[in-house]
Amino acid sequence: MILELSGLHASYGATRVLHGIDFKMEEKSITTLLGANGAGKTTTLRAICGMVRTEGEIRFGGQKLGNRKTEDIARLGIAHVPDGRGTFLHLTTEENLRLGAYARKDRANVARDLAKMYEYFPRLKERSQQQAGTLSGGEQQMLAVSRALMLAPKLMLLDEPSFGLAPLVVRELFGILRTINAEERVSMLVVEQNAAMALDLADHACVIETGRVVLSGTAAELKKDDAVRRSYLGY
Amino acid sequence: MSRKTLVLAIVLLIVACALPFVVSNYRTFQFTLVLVYAIALLGLNILTGYNGQISLGHGAFYALGAYCTAILMDRWGVPYWATIPVAGAVCLGAGFLFGLPALRLEGLYLALATFALGVATPQLLKYHLLEKWTGGVQGIVIMKPAPPFGLPLNPDQWLYFFTLAIAAVMFILGWNLIRGRIGRALVAIRDQHIAAEAMGIHNALYKSLAFGVSAMFTGVAGALGAVAVQFVAPDSFNIFLSIVLLVGIVVGGLASISGALYGALFIQFIPNIADEISKAAPWAIFGAFMIGFVYLMPTGVAGAVRLLTARRKAP
Amino acid sequence: MDALLHQVLAGLATGGIYASLALALVMIYQATHLVNFAQGEMAMFTTYIAWSLIEAGMPYWAAFILTVLTAFMLGVLIERLIIRPVGQAPVLAVVVVFIALLLILNSVTGWIYTYTIKTFPSPFPAQPLFGNRYLSSHELGAIGITLVVLLLLYAFFRFTPLGLAMRAAAQNPESSRLVGIRVGWMLALGWGLAAAIGSIGGMMVAPIVYLDPNMMSGVLLYAFAAALVGGIDNPMGAVIGGFLVGVLENVLGAFVIGNELKLSVALVIIIGVLLVRPSGFFGRVQVSRV
Hints:
The complex is a heterotrimer of chains A (235), B (315) and C (290). Helix content of chain A is 38%, strand content 27%. Chain A has 10 helices and 10 strands. In chain A, α3 (93-100) packs parallel to α6. In chain A, 46% of the residues are buried. In chain A, strands 6-7-8-3-9-10 form a 6-stranded mixed beta sheet, sandwiched between helices. Chain A has a 4-stranded antiparallel beta sheet with strand order 2-1-4-5, covered by helices on one side. With 235 residues, chain A is an alpha/beta fold. Chain B has helices at residues 3-22, 25-50, 59-76, 80-102, 107-125, 131-134, 155-179, 181-191, 193-198, 203-229, 239-252, 257-275, 281-296, 300-313; strands at 140-141, 231-232. A two-stranded antiparallel ribbon of chain B has the order 1-2. Chain C has a domain at 17-216. Chain C contains 11 helices and no strands. Chain C has helices spanning 2-32, 39-55, 60-83, 91-113, 137-159, 161-171, 173-178, 183-209, 216-230, 235-255, 262-276. In chain C, α1 (2-32) crosses α9 (216-230). The termini of chain C are far apart. At the B-C interface, α5, α11 and α13 of B face α4, α9 and α11 of C.
């Protein structure tokens, strides 16, 4: 199990958003978290990264995360591509990528990985010296994903990677994610509102409603599930 | 005003009136300065505590008031009591004028601009073109007023009562202002200025007014201070004066009328006590107290008092 | 013409010092959006440390380096112990803490060293270079040192991973945490660097204005003016602003308003910039959304 959440509660100040999430994720899988707006999907990702107040247990590769600070959790090998991408807008594309590798101990491999990112996303190479803020939405998303990959993470958390992107671009991005998952063996937890595309991408899926897991299983199972079809797939 | 507060105020007034007759002349003089500072702090509090505009340069208005009095008394022989309202009016205008450009500055930037004002004040006062009025570096000496109508008081005692009377008037004025519509508008602007504007409060007008009124209070204090100390000179109005006023409202309690009194007592008497240790010590102590209060007692002494009395009232 | 040239060059010399302090201010502002009102006193305090070392017999440059290192550590300490706890506090609380720091540093210095004015040595020879009549060796040296410091800083931020991480932490702390940057320590580092730069400025200005606990209040004002002119979030702007303010101060002081009112130049610049173009000439314009 790369990730295990047991009885996870999370609050923003006095408002409780997660009411006891139980969730397991296997290594090297791509799992998607589905749910409506405000269900608690983003909060779950933020909870994993220590960005909100939590109660309950989070285990990463068997290790309890406890009260660790966000930066220390990142250093353990969890790369979070946040809601809104979190690009360093005033730095160049390449500087953004290099920052992804900032905390790595194996500095010798950084150059190699940078080249690999440019292979996966040639458009980033074209814009490597450009200010990241001038990149298009799709390019910034690719940059965010690459930056996360530069951490050489064991687990990637992606928060609505399809947001604001044209369907063709999303298809391209998700294809690359699949490739990365296969080649780099990075586990991926993908929060998505676009359930159809997410269920095509993922192996496993989990539905969250008002801070609780209401359904989980393989992506194939959920695609056939009536409730999921009606609520999230629209047919 | 609740009956309890009214009773307290009256008791305080009685004690204040009795004071000069039980303590030495020098102590009376010190308490006169406490009253002076209290008025100044009330002024600063109106601007910074209630209206949220940070001023690190209020020493400039204090100086303006002081010099008004000194120049009127020394160059034109105006009697001391007549200079007070003039100083107030001049500072009201100056404050309002400064408040206009200050409208465009928020928080840190306003602090910066007023800090610059506070630092530049002594130099402005020493400017040679104004020397014929300001007396340049040497300043101006003022004669201590004698008690009128042949009252059986010595000059220090008379000055104390004169200051006390004006302080009482200023405090009532301030209290009325704060409790009324204007005070509520000021606080609304401090807390949620966008909502305040949306509700129809003319932010620009009120904020400039706050500056003007605040300057007026501090200017009156400066005028009274000049008469008490009998001397004005540029270097007594440096940035440290502005800082001392800030210390006063932080320690005394922001957005509090009683806080002005607590703060005044603090800034008048702590240096005397600290002076025993070293000439530099008062400032270090001020600094330490400021940090202490910000972390531990952000509502100042007034807030602590309120907390204690509130707890006692609950069953 | 001659006199004008002299004032301009002298202005560049003091301008370099203002540029150093302005740079320190901008560095802290970039990382924290706070104005360090105590920057001048920190520089003054560390200059006194240098003075003690030199008085004890240490050679100038050894004392210089030791002072810069000590200033760095002092900056880090102040950030960790005094500034960090106020992090999320309202503006007034933060301003009060800075002013308190100013007071404490000023008074502790006065306590330890008394208020008598002291002379501070210059490492540069007394004779002007090539016997020129425009710039003393010290003034030339001060400009030189300022430029070297600025170059080193630029290289640090532009080309090293740590410099990149510090820039990132200042611009976007949340994203920085997500890539494993210890944002808290980046801030402390920033303060350390700012303090170190300030100490260099202090050591360059002390031979000119003589060492006394209040020597930096005027300099600080000019540094504020410089930082604002250049754009308070722009290091390059701070440097240009510094030189500009230095020259303006000298030229206006000598030919227009007289030396006594020089500080008012700073005041007018500060208020003027804040009213007309708060983001300075090179800074990013901040739009605040309602």
